[in-house]
Amino acid sequence: MPLHLILIDALNLIRRIYAVQERPFLLNNELAENTKRQVLFNTQQGCVSALGKMLEQHQPSHALAVFDSIAPCWRYQLFPDYKKGRKKMPQHLADKLSDIQDEFMRFSVDSLVSEADEADDLIATLAVKVALRGQNVTIVSTDKSFLSLLGPNIKVYDYFNRRYLDETYVREKFKVKPEQLVDFWTLTGDSTNKIPGVAGIGQITASALLSQYDSLAALLNAKDLKQSVMTKLHEDVDQLKLYRQLLTLKQDIPLGFNLKDLRLPLASESE
C-alpha cells in the first residue's frame, strides 16, 4: 500500500479534549480531587476514542504522536516573551500523559517526546522529509503554524471540526498563499505566541503587500513603497528578522529513527 503517515500534534489534541471535560466542573477555577480523577479518566478515554477514529478515517500506513519538550524550547531563549501569559498545563494532566501514551501504544502508535524542540518543529521536519520522497503526510492539529507546510503531499486535518485546512481555507482566512504565511504573520504579529509584528500593519495591509511583492525579502528591498510603510518596515529590521525566525518551523532536526519504526501492524501485513 502507498505510504501515508499521520502525525498527531499530541498536546493540541489532549489539552483540547481535557478542556471540554474540565469545563462543566470548574468551581472558582479549581477541581475537587474526586472530580479531577473523573476528568482525567474521561480525557484519557476521549483521547483513545479520537485516535481510533483518526486511524479508521485516514487509514494510515504509519503514525506517530508528537509531544512538546518539558523544558522551554529554543524560541524562549531568543525571545523571552514567547507565549507569555499562556495558561500552563495543569500538573495533574501532565502526570497523566504517560498513561495516555501507553494507551496510544495499544494502537501501535508510538510517542515522540522532544528534549529541546517544540512538537511543531519535529512534526515539520518529519512531514517535509516524507513529502520530499513523494509520500503522503496528514498532520492532525488545529495549530495554524502547520498551514505554511501545505502542499501536494502534506495535508492538515482539524479533528475537532472534521475538516481539512487546505489552500482554499488559507486564502479565504488570510488572503495569502500557504507559502506566504510566515511572512504574513511576521508583519501582522501572532497573538497566540505573543509575537508583536510590525506596529500599524494589519491583515488587510499585509495581504495586499504580499500580493504585490510576494515576500518579506522583496518588501524590504522595494524602493517604491509608500514612505509610511517603508518607515514601519525599516524601524527595526533585526527585530523583524527575529520574528520571522520564531515563526518559521525547523525542518532539519536529527530524528534518530526510521519510517519503518512508525509502520502500523496492519500496514505491514498488507505489504
TrEMBL record:
UniProt KW Metal-binding keyword: yes
This entry's Enzyme Commission designation comes to 3.1.-.-
Q: What keywords appear on the UniProt entry?
A: DNA-binding, Endonuclease, Hydrolase, Magnesium, Metal-binding, Nuclease, Potassium
Outline the extent of the 5'-3' exonuclease domain: 3-265
Positions binding Mg(2+) in this chain are D120
InterPro entries for the chain: 5-3_exonucl_a-hlix_arch_N, 5-3_exonuclease, 5-3_exonuclease_C_sf, DNA_polI_H3TH, FEN, HhH2, PIN-like_dom_sf, Xni
The molecular function terms in GO held by this entry are: 5'-3' exonuclease activity; 5'-flap endonuclease activity; DNA binding; magnesium ion binding; potassium ion binding
- Required co-factors: K(+); Mg(2+)
Q: Which SUPFAM superfamilies does the record associate with it?
A: 5' to 3' exonuclease, C-terminal subdomain, PIN domain-like
What's any GO biological process attached to this entry?
Answer: DNA replication, Okazaki fragment processing
Which residue ranges does the record annotate as region Interaction with DNA? 200-205
Q: How is the cofactor bound?
A: Binds 1 K(+) per subunit. The potassium ion strongly increases the affinity for DNA.
Residues that bind K(+): L187, P196, V198, I201
* Keyword match Transcription: no
Q: Report the function annotation for this chain.
A: Has flap endonuclease activity. During DNA replication, flap endonucleases cleave the 5'-overhanging flap structure that is generated by displacement synthesis when DNA polymerase encounters the 5'-end of a downstream Okazaki fragment.
Q: Which family does it belong to?
A: Belongs to the Xni family.
* Alphabetical list of NCBIfam families matching this protein: PRK09482.1
Q: What is this protein called?
A: Flap endonuclease Xni
Report the source organism.
Thalassomonas actiniarum
The encoding gene is xni
